[in-house]
Every structure is written in C-alpha cells, then in structure tokens.
Write a structure and sequence with these properties.
InterPro entries: AAA+_ATPase, ABC_transporter-like_ATP-bd, ABC_transporter-like_CS, FeS-cluster_ATPase_SufC, P-loop_NTPase. Residues 6-248 form the ABC transporter domain. With 252 residues, this protein is of the alpha/beta class. The chain contains 9 helices and 12 strands. It has one domain (6-250): P-loop containing nucleotide triphosphate hydrolases (Rossmann fold, 3-Layer(aba) Sandwich), CATH 3.40.50.300. It has helices at residues 44-52, 76-82, 99-111, 117-130, 148-162, 178-194, 207-213, 232-241, 244-250; strands at residues 6-15, 18-28, 33-37, 58-66, 69-70, 84-87, 94-98, 141-142, 166-170, 199-203, 217-222, 225-230. A 6-stranded mixed beta sheet has the order 6-9-10-3-11-12, with helices on both faces. A hairpin with a 2-residue loop joins strand 1 (6-15) and strand 2 (18-28).
C-alpha cells in the first residue's frame, strides 16, 4: 500500500488554554486535491497553522506525518524546506523586499543552493505570464500596494516557483471577485499540470472555488472535528442545507 503524502492522526490543538481541534483525521495521497469547508470558528485556519508548524498554537494530542515521517515537532522552516507550503488567507506586506528577491531567498533555502537573480528571473517571467501578471510585478515590494487578486496570484507564483510536494491553501479565495478567483484557481491547476504529484488541501467557505478545482474529496469541519467526508455532492448539499444539519449531529 502506498504511503500517504500527508496524514493527520487524531489531532488535538489548543490556542492558549482553549481547545480548537478535537481529534482531526485526514489522509491525502500524492496528486489528490482535498477541500475543507466549515463555518466561522470551526477551526479551519487553526488546522492550516498546525499543519505548517505555527508556534502560536499547541498540539496537545495526535500527530502529523509527511511522506511517512512524523513532522509533529518540526518547525515551520523545516517543514517548508521539506516541501510543505502554506498560502495565507491574509498575505503580509514586506516593504523593501522585492518579489524576486523574496523568491530567490526562499528557493535558495528550499533547495540548499545560492541562486542568482538572473537565473530565477527567466522562470519567474514564464510563470507571471501564465498567471496573468505584468512583467514589472517581479520588482515590486512583496504585497505592498497589491490588490487582493495580486496578493493571491503572488501566493500561487510562490507555489509554482518553490515546487513543494504539499500545498495548503488557507481561504485563497477570500475577498476575490469571480474573475480573480478563476485566475487563481486556474493558476493552481497550471501548477498541478506541471507537477501532477502535488497534493493540495484547499480550505474554503465557497463552492465556487470547488467548481474550479474539482477536488477528489470534500471534508466538513464543525466544532473542531471533521464530521463528514465525500465527493463534490457534499458541497452541493452544503449549499442547499447550510451547516445546521451537521451542527445538530454534533450537539450532545
């Protein structure tokens, strides 16, 4: 039996003294796209931060495995170098650091080599064209003055250039209009076309992103637990019923 690319086992997570995740199990094979949906406060972003190794949360029980290795105790930098990528819901501005310099430093750390700006610029230009970004984009300061769509496309540019094995997209569609969302979703599909073994966990509120990504599995997270998993029909049911039926099922 093939080893899962990414596996979460009975994960319990707290923020301060408040328990947020209460036993999450999740298995993602290479090349699979999984979607995670849930109401506000369900623990979606907490799960994303736990998977990436954020120091702001505490894992109190359970484990996280990447390519068969237990990475529960690994820091975010080690996970990033190993091939785990997180696209943030609210990307941070970094004044004074250009997009291309940021990518050069990140890719050099990821690959363990010292890349020159010239070496990187050619591949960046190709991907910017594929993502619908102007050629001047590479020399702008990271996320400074970017529109919401530009920030999210920049995250997909990072995903393309850094070549991770596992991508966690934390509400990448947040704040985007339908045209920008399609550009971002198609950017993810462009990356997957080049690297079909890429695993993706897309955390979202909206079915419209799923219409573009066509996930293999949809999970519903309510009150810190995955309460149901299924195909795209689960997202369709959610659009019709909302979260109330799952809340009733989890209420003692």
């Amino acid at each position: 039996m093939a080893t899962p690319l990414f596996e979460v086992r009975d994960l319990h997570v707290s923020a301060g003294d408040v328990p947020i995740l209460k036993g999450v199990d999740l298995t993602i094979m290479a090349g699979e796209v999984h979607a995670l949906m849930g109401p506000n406060g369900a623990g979606k972003s907490t799960l994303a931060n736990a998977l990436m190794g954020s120091p702001e949360i505490t894992i109190t029980q359970g484990s996280i495995h990447f390519r068969g290795d237990d990475i529960t105790s690994w820091g975010a930098d080690i996970r990033g170098k190993a091939g785990v990528f997180l696209a943030f819901q609210y990307p941070q501005e970094i004044p004074g650091v250009s997009v291309i310099n940021f990518l050069r430093q990140a890719l050099s750390a990821r690959k363990g080599i010292d890349l020159s700006i010239l070496e990187l610029r050619l591949s960046i230009m190709e991907w910017m064209k594929r993502l619908g970004l102007d050629s001047s984009f590479a020399d702008r300061y990271l996320n400074e003055g970017f529109s919401g769509g530009e920030k999210k496309r920049n995250e997909i540019l990072q995903l393309a250039i850094l070549e991770p094995a596992m991508a966690i997209l934390d509400e990448t569609d947040s704040g985007l209009d339908i045209d920008a969302l399609r550009i971002v979703a198609r950017g993810v599909q462009e990356v997957r076309q080049d690297r079909p073994e890429l695993g993706v966990l897309a955390i979202t509120h909206y079915q419209r992103l799923l219409d573009e990504l066509a996930p293999d599995v949809v999970h519903i997270l309510v009150d810190g637990r995955i309460v149901e998993s299924g195909g795209l029909e689960l997202a369709t049911r959610l659009e019709l019923e909302g979260y109330d039926s799952w809340r009733r099922e989890t209420t003692p």
